[in-house]
């Protein structure tokens, strides 16, 4: 199989994990470069990938390569959305990157730009929107819907039939009970246990999870 050219938008720690996932499937992807305001020597050394100076340099290759957002900070939603809009405006193609050690049900639906990392599980009937990140060891149970740009941190788990809005961040090791709704722009704290639906824009913490006082 001929490898597709892939450019990472971002060069930090999360980019290294995405790069590792892309290369785990032999012949799937060839890392063409990365775009970041600052040089990222660790990424360059570890994966032999070169830095492209800016978005213009990357977009000059848009007819020959694929792109993936490789920025994973909890507070990165607005930046990720701006980058996606800029690249969408010129018809950029978004890669769906999955690690060889992940498991994705044949009946799950993954939108372009999704990244599924090592040990993650996406079960039957799950639907993931554009630019969703399912991080290391996270579990998306059956029939769960995940809105665009939402991210699961490592070991985050949902029960079946959960509805997660766009722009959400599920923290390290959190748990979300089956058949609850997580609204738009919600942050679920590390280790939190969500037992009821969460309103738009809330940050919930603890066991059981409660809204943080503002």
Structure characterization notes:
The protein contains 4 helices and 23 strands. By secondary structure, it is α/β, with parallel strands linked by helices. It folds into 2 domains: 4-95, 3-Layer(aba) Sandwich (Rossmann fold); 96-200, UDP N-Acetylglucosamine Acyltransferase, domain 1 (3 Solenoid), CATH 2.160.10. The strands form 5 sheets. The protein has an 8-stranded mixed sheet with strand order 5-8-11-14-17-20-22-23, covered by helices on one side. Strands 7-10-13-16-19 form a 5-stranded parallel sheet, with no helix packed on it. α1 links the parallel β1 (4-9) and β2. The longest helix has 12 residues, at 13-24.
């Amino acid at each position: 199989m001929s490898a597709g050219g892939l450019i990472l938008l971002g060069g930090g720690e999360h980019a290294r994990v995405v790069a590792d996932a892309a290369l785990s499937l032999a012949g799937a992807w060839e890392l063409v470069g990365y775009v970041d305001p600052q040089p990222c020597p660790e990424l360059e050394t570890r994966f032999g990938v070169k830095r492209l100076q800016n978005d213009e340099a990357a977009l000059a290759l848009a007819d020959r390569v694929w792109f993936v957002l490789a920025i994973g900070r909890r507070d990165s939603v607005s930046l990720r959305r701006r980058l996606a809009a800029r690249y969408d405006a010129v018809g950029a193609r978004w890669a769906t990157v999955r690690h060889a050690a992940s498991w994705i049900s044949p009946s799950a639906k993954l939108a372009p730009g999704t990244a599924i990392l090592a040990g993650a599980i996406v079960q039957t009937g799950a639907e993931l929107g554009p630019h969703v990140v399912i991080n290391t060891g996270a579990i998306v149970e059956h029939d769960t819907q995940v809105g665009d740009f939402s991210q699961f941190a490592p070991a985050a788990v949902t029960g079946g039939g959960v509805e997660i809005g766009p722009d959400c961040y599920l923290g390290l090791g959190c748990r979300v009970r089956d058949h609850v709704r997580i609204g738009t722009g919600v942050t679920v704290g590390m280790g939190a246990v969500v037992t009821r639906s969460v309103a738009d824009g809330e940050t919930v913490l603890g066991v059981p999870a409660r809204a943080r006082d503002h």
